[in-house]
Structure formats: structure tokens, C-alpha cells
Amino acid sequence: MSQSIVREETKNEIQDSAQVRIAILSNSGGAGKSTLCHNIAYNLNKLGKSTLLLDLDIQHNLDLFCGLTSTKKVGTMVDVFAENFQGNYPIVQIEGRQTSIIRGCNELQRVQQELVLRRRREQVLADLFVDYPLEYDAILMDCPATLGLVIDNAIASATHLLIPLVPEGKAVQGLNGLFDTIEKISRDLRLNPRPTVLGIVPVGYEKDTASHRQALAAFKSRCDYIEVELFEPITDSKEVKNANEAGKPIGIYRPGHKSSLEFERLTKLLFDKIYGKT
């Protein structure tokens, strides 16, 4: 596996970038992508960055997590991927926050099939960001768990990638395959520059579970070898699940809670890595 998936950038190059676009992806379901996306966006707001969430997952869990329980939707990412799209992004402002969202839906499965017939099918989203710019400091993309053209579009349009993984044996085994996929997509699409892999975030970690400790050690060994950062784990928490069901980030639902501090610490590390230490 090539180590070229990790693109080294100078601090000045990062600061000159007008917009940060982070694709949050994993090679399995239940890896906490939506929770991570939601809570990082909230903490980026606290650091002064306006954020937009793009829900690319057919499960569209971000609807619930953002408190959008109504089944009547103004528009979704399906509209954005439509061939006749002309820049009228169906953006929903989340009440009381500096975060907005373009919602997902189960019809994104149909988008996968329709994209096959499109020219530049892997770069539809990247082209839209050029043709119809979005005025947000950061765009966070909640990716589906299965590989396909939607994930190709996320990677092709991203400046950075963040990978949450549950500390289990199958995640350790699938890690090489995930990085090989990222490398292959970047190479085949001739992405220049390639998105920077920010690192891996273990989620749902239970320190008293032996298999989790073993998986974490395996993550560390692999990350050291390929020179990818392994962030401190986000521990398993019922309060995070409760916050999701309440439609709030844990920082609003239970400020000062251990999980709230973990997401806050992670976001600050990401912020420093992207923008340079403040």
C-alpha cells in the first residue's frame, strides 16, 4: 500500500484554502459517522467556523440527530445530484446553531445507479462546488457505509478525510482495504491535490473490554506504520445516544459531560491540524 494517500501540506497552503471539506467515511455501518459529523460541526461552530452538513447516507440519521423529525422535506441530496441541478441547494438551517444541513434520504440508493450514466460521474459533487460555491467555512460529509459512486464523489470533492472505526477485529482487518480503496480512487481520478487523511478516530470504546483494548493496540501499530494519526478514542456513552435522540449535540445536551469534552478535544486537534495551532 502506498503512503501517498497522506498529503503533506504546509501551514500556509492550508490557511490559503477558502473552504475545508471533510469526508467522514468508514468501511462498515455502525461506526458512528453521523454522531461524529454532528458533534464536530457543533464544536467547529464554537471555534468560530460556520458549517454545513451533507448527509450522503441512505440511513439519513443526521435528520434525527439535528432535531429534524418532520417527514416533509423541502429537498435532499438527491436534488443536488440531479442532472438538471442549477445551484439551488436545499439548505436547512438548524435552529439555534451556526450549522446547516442538506438532508439525506433512502432515495440516494437510486442516485448510485443514475450516476453510472453520467459523464464525470465520480466528480459531480466536486464540479458543483466549483460551479455553485457554498459560503461555509467547513463542509462535513456523512458518507454511506458501502463503497460506490457516492463515496467516490465525496472523496473527489474533499480536502480532508476522517475515518471513525469501532475497535473490533473486523475493523482492524478491513483497515488496509479501506486505505487501498482511498489510494485507488485518488490515483484513478488523478486527484491533485489528493485529500489529506486527518486520521482515525476509534468510537464506542470500552476500556474494560479486552477486545477493544486489543483492537486499539492494533490500530496504533498500523497507524504508526503508515504514518496516519490515531486520535484518542471516543468512549461508549448512553448520554451520546440520548443526545442524538433528543436532536442535540452532546455539548448542548450535557455540557461538561465526559463525552462532550472528548468531542471538544478531538475538534480542537482537528482545527489545529487543518488551520494551524492558535
Architecture overview:
This protein is an alpha/beta fold. It has one domain: Rossmann fold (3-Layer(aba) Sandwich), CATH 3.40.50. It has twelve helices and eight strands. The protein has helices at 11-16, 33-46, 62-65, 77-81, 108-115, 124-131, 149-157, 169-188, 210-226, 238-245, 250-253, 258-275; strands spanning 20-24, 51-55, 92-93, 99-102, 138-142, 160-165, 196-205, 234-235. Strands 3-4-2-5-1-6-7-8 form an eight-stranded mixed beta sheet, with helices on both faces. Strand 6, helix 8 and strand 7 form a beta-alpha-beta unit.
Give me some keywords for this one.
globular, P-loop_NTPase, 14% strand, AAA_dom, eight-stranded mixed sheet, ParA family protein, alpha/beta
Note the run of SSEs as H and E: HEHEHHEEHHEHEHEHEHHH
The CATH top-level class label = Alpha Beta
The CATH superfamily label reads: P-loop containing nucleotide triphosphate hydrolases
CATH topology heading: Rossmann fold
Q: What's the helix count? A: 12
Spans of 5+ residues with little confidence (pLDDT < 50)? 1-17
Mean pLDDT: 88
Distance between the termini: 34 Å
Strand content: 5-15%
Whole-number count of domains:
1
